[in-house]
Amino acid sequence: MDNQFVLITNSEEETMRLGERLASILPSGSTLLLTGDLGAGKTTLVRGIARGLNIKEVVQSPTFNIMKIYLKGNRPLIHIDAYRLADFDTDIGLDEYIGYETGITVIEWPEFIQKLLPDDAINVTILRKGDTTREITIDIDEELRRLI
Ligand SMILES: Nc1ncnc2c1ncn2[C@@H]1O[C@H](COP(=O)(O)OP(=O)(O)O)[C@@H](O)[C@H]1O
Ligand SMILES: [Mg+2]
User: Whose CA is nearest to atom 16 of ligand 1?
Assistant: First the structure.
């Protein structure tokens, strides 16, 4: 059963730590969909996930790459930023990477690749409440939620 889990972070570091926690509890094959305005903290959360997976490379916003795959951590991290795929109807094979079974897939601006999203993807919404305050809502089942 799906549950909405709402929490507040008060700094970039706190959001990173939430990402780290997510990296440690999410099963491989999980897909996270990050929704929120520019500057909300989506990429920051991905950086935390990368840190949790022991990925040493700097995670940058892939807005200009669309996708980046990190293979040097404990598990693969697939980071997709679909922003530039708005109204782009050509199949570029992204679906091959989404839900990659041995890793974690994180998608910023998932609304632009709606047709490619797996049914069991986990929605995460980040809302800017102030300069350093963010409200983060995660649709996660009870069992995982207790682990965060
Ligand atoms: N609580 C917080 N969580 C995440 N980022 C925060 C927070 N407070 C301030 N920030 C700042 O907000 C910005 C978020 O940027 P970024 O993660 O690139 O957003 P997005 O990927 O959603 O566009 C960064 O400059 C970060 O330092
Ligand atoms: Mg970003």
Answer: 41
- List ligand 1's pocket residues with C-beta within 6 A: 9-12, 14-15, 36, 38-44, 61, 108, 132, 134
The CATH code belonging to domain 4-145 is: 3.40.50.300
Mean pLDDT score of the chain:
92
Phi, psi of 139 (to 5 degrees): -90, 100
Which residue, judged by its Cα, is nearest atom 27 of ligand 1? 12
pLDDT of residue 62: 65
Q: Is the pTM of this model over 0.85?
A: yes
Domain residue ranges of the chain, discontinuous segments joined by +: 4-145
- DSSP assignment of the chain: ---EEEEEE-SHHHHHHHHHHHHHHSPTT-EEEEE--TTSSHHHHHHHHHHHTT--SPP--GGGTSEEEE-SSSS-EEEEEGGGGTT--S--SGGGTTT-TTSEEEEESGGGGGGG--TTPEEEEEEE-SSS-EEEEEE--HHHHTT-
More confident residue, 148 or 78: 78
